[in-house]
Amino acid sequence: MIREGDFRDFKEMLKLERQGFPREHVYSPYYLNYLLKKPNSIVLKVLAEQKMVGFIISLLSQATREAHIINLTVHPSFRRRGYGKLLLQSTEERAKKKEMIACYLEVRVNNESAINLYKKTGYKIEGVVKEYYTYPLLESRDAYKMRKRL
Ligand SMILES: CC(C)(COP(=O)(O)OP(=O)(O)OC[C@H]1O[C@@H](n2cnc3c(N)ncnc32)[C@H](O)[C@@H]1OP(=O)(O)O)[C@@H](O)C(=O)NCCC(=O)NCCS
Prior knowledge:
This protein is an alpha+beta fold. It contains four helices and seven strands, in the order βααβββαβαββ. It has one domain (2-149): 3-Layer(aba) Sandwich (Aminopeptidase). The protein is 29% helix and 34% strand. Strand 3 and strand 4 form a beta hairpin. The protein is globular and about 40 Å long.
C-alpha cells in the first residue's frame, strides 16, 4: 500500500535508511529533514504488515521539468517483493501528473540490485559521474547517471 510521507516519518525513515545502506553511505539526518520539508518534493512510503517498509524521495524542478530521485530504500527483510518497483512507478505517475518530462537518479556503479531495478523499469545509463560519493570507505565512489523519459 502506497501512502504519501512527510516530516512525521523522519525517525522511521532514518532508521530504514540505516538498515538499507552501509553505515558510511547514509544521508545525514539534516539532509533527510530538509528533503521532507521541501514543497517541491514527492515523498512516498510503502506499508506492509501495518508498518513502513520502504520509501522514496524525489525533488521536482519546474525549470527543467525533471524529477530527481534522491533516495529509495526498502527494508532488507521486505526486498524482492516488488516494493522498490512500486515506489518508483508511483513516483513516476505523480511526477507525470505534475508535468515532469523525465526522472533521473545517480546510483553507485556496483549497486547491482538497484541498477537491475532501474534498467527493468526503463532507465538508461547516460554516463558515469566520477567520485559522486565522497565516503572514503566505499570500494567504489563512482555513480551512473540514469534517466527515463516519462
Ligand atoms: C534497490 C532496492 C530499493 C530494490 O528494492 P526491492 O523492493 O527489493 O526491489 P523489487 O522487488 O521491486 O525488484 C524489482 C526488480 O529489480 C531487480 N532486483 C532487485 N533486487 C535485486 C537483487 N538483489 N539482485 C538482482 N536484481 C535485483 C530485479 O530485476 C527485480 O525483479 P524480480 O524480483 O522480478 O527479479 C533495495 O534492494 C534496497 O533498498 N537497497 C538498498 C538501498 C539502495 O541501494 N537504494 C538505491 C539507491 S540508488
